[in-house]
Amino acid sequence: MSETFPAYLISKSDSGQVAELKQITLDELMDGDVIVKVEYSTLNYKDGLALTGKAPVVRRFPLVPGIDFAGSVVSSDHPGFKQGDQVVLNGFGVGEVHSGGYAGMARVKGDWLVALPEGFTPRQAMAVGTAGYTAMLCVMALEQHGVTPESGEVLVTGAAGGVGSVAVSILSRLGYQVTASSGRASQTEYLIGLGAHQVIDRGEFSGKVKPLAKERWAAAIDVAGGNTLANLLSQINYGGAVAACGLAESMDLPASVAPFILRGVTLYGIDSVMASIEKRQRAWQRLAKDLDLEQLEKMIVEIPFEELPAAAAAILEGQVRGRALVRIPS
């Protein structure tokens, strides 16, 4: 296969990191036993960091960014996949140390792929994307902890973003009373439309952290980290839990041990990158069952392929709502 296809290629020199839109061939991709024609990818917060170079997400150069994609198998030497199979990939270092989804073709290990669940198109799978798959992992962690709709209110931080939007929609559909936290008052109607019971300003979690504050939430899904996570931990009900999956605010955690040893609060770390295939398959099957596809359409913002660098800067500034979908040109 010597024909070319469009791709973003990140390279690094003494003057820094740069992402350029080029035409490349399969010979320029990395090793793998499955070749996939990429139909859709997404723009996640991590992709924004990679494309802008604002954080050292990309650790091998040159590299095609894009931490997820969906498409059809072109050829396979892997026993689990054959030509024509529709597949989805999230994480496993793709877009970080292995070329990823921002290209017309991808060559990856078949062990990283999940067969597209029945009922999902590649477009819908990437409307879910890594953000939605991560949200489902968070919901599953809270369920495993024993949090039920009868337990009380569940807080979702960064609710207007990709993870938050899907989490609000899933939790609401499962019968939970969801409070959405956002720094964008303009998104209140959008979040109520996804099923949030109420929307509060993220500023409520920006103050000085108390070891213990008034109990408010049965559980929470947090994408922020930092002061926000520390504050909400102090507000979790006795025996409750927080699923933490992001660091949009900070990697720091200026908290005390008080919530853990005096209220029995549990903090679950959600890793979407290296989660087992079995856990991924369960998450995608749950998404096929528990995510309202009409609600999913309300979350979608389509990003033209050639405008990805500008959109990457925007997502880091919190200016992209919901799920940023990217159709990959042939």
From TrEMBL:
Residues of the Enoyl reductase (ER) domain: 16-326
Matching SUPFAM superfamilies: GroES-like, NAD(P)-binding Rossmann-fold domains
GO molecular function, one term: acryloyl-CoA reductase (NADPH) activity
Chain segments annotated as transmembrane: none
A Pfam family that the UniProt record links to this protein: ADH_N
InterPro entries per record: Acrylyl-CoA_reductase_AcuI (IPR014188), ADH-like_C (IPR013149), ADH-like_N (IPR013154), ER (IPR020843), GroES-like_sf (IPR011032), NAD(P)-bd_dom_sf (IPR036291), Zn-ADH-like_protein (IPR051397)
PANTHER family named among the record's database cross-references: ACRYLYL-COA REDUCTASE ACUI-RELATED, SHORT-CHAIN DEHYDROGENASE/REDUCTASE
Protein name (database record): Oxidoreductase
Natural source organism: Candidatus Thiodiazotropha taylori
Organism ancestry: Bacteria, Pseudomonadati, Pseudomonadota, Gammaproteobacteria, Chromatiales
